[in-house]
Amino acid sequence: MLDLAAEHAPYQAELDTAWRATVQEAAFIQGPAVRAFATELGSWLGDAHVVPCANGTDALTLALLSLELPPGAEIIVPAFTYVATLEAVALLGLRPVLVDVRPDTFNVDLAAVRAAITPRTGAVIAVHLFGQCADLESLKIMCLSAGVFLIEDNAQALGATFTFATGEMAYAGTVGEVGTTSFFPGKNLGCLGDGGALFTRDAARAALLHQLANHGQSQKYYHQRIGLNSRLDTLQAALLRVKLRHLPTAQAARQALAARYDAALAGLPGLQIPARDPRSSHVFHQYVIRMDGPGPRDALRAHLKAKGIPSAVYYPLPVHAQPAYAYLGYQVGQFPVAEALCGQVLALPVHPALTEAQQEYVVVQLGYFAAGGG
Ligand SMILES: *Cc1c(COP(=O)(O)O)cnc(C)c1O
């Protein structure tokens, strides 16, 4: 699904130089590259404040901590997401309230969010799944009028843009009170280990987030709040500065691959290509097709595997069916779209180093399967 070595090959020398310079400088914690990377990423995202941290899960934890919500406050989270979104909520003693997603974009269903808002709601976490923005326009209005915070889990859609009815455009992660992202190696902007960051438009909140990520300290050994030790390593920041320069190229490669898949796969029986929301760009962290059910999906997966083609299921089990979250008391059947999607979705290879010839082979095998040859 990924070929990081091939993806890094064109700029391997730049990575080596960054690595070596950081080792020589020996400022491994909060070295100059950390701030430089935060500034560069912030300006790339339309002048947002960027606070680096240790990983995308910590970013969610820090975002929630910064809201200073009462214990047990309800946090609305989509039922179809990576578990980290829920985990941060649960670990802080807040109450995850799950809502179903849309069958077309797989992003959170607005009517379900509206129905889930109560006087105890503290925040809504929107997840921009697979690289396309959730309905930020409606979410922003809904959260504003309900007096609850909007958090964007932007681990999968860094660089995607959303255009509002006014014509104003914003980057994913910079619309809500706080946005979070992950630099896990497999993400669109991945480092060579773990990393993450938070985004906000509010300088005071950025300062608070920075403090929370550094043991809650205002200066060394003076602690205002209970915080985390959650920092981006200088080494990772130095490598991310290199990779950020190459991100537009990688993003264009993903989008070109997605467009070719769209053209080749549209109309194949039993298979739906990813739905596009015209208000959002799509950065294709994953290219996810939808099959009619678990039988055909698993058969296609087996066929591709037999032909040497990797594919993946994000996610095979919805969060409310995970044993760890049984305590929330949800029943199977409560989130029918999320549950159905777990049996229908299949992610195809869409990484930037995938060649046209490799993709053509995938397309031929998909066509062969759809024609009954699987
Ligand atoms: C990857 C991911 C995370 C967690 O990021 P880590 O850096 O692995 O902690 C959170 N939410 C979503 C939607 C993700 O895809």
Automatic annotation (TrEMBL):
Pfam families according to UniProt: DegT_DnrJ_EryC1 (PF01041)
GO molecular-function terms, A-Z: transaminase activity
Keyword Aminoacyl-tRNA synthetase recorded: no
Superkingdom of this protein's organism: Bacteria
Keywords, alphabetical: Aminotransferase, Pyridoxal phosphate, Transferase
Record family assignment: Belongs to the DegT/DnrJ/EryC1 family.
PANTHER family registered for this protein in UniProt: TRANSAMINASE, UDP-2-ACETAMIDO-2-DEOXY-3-OXO-D-GLUCURONATE AMINOTRANSFERASE
Name the record gives this protein: DegT/DnrJ/EryC1/StrS family aminotransferase
Protein's organism: Hymenobacter bucti
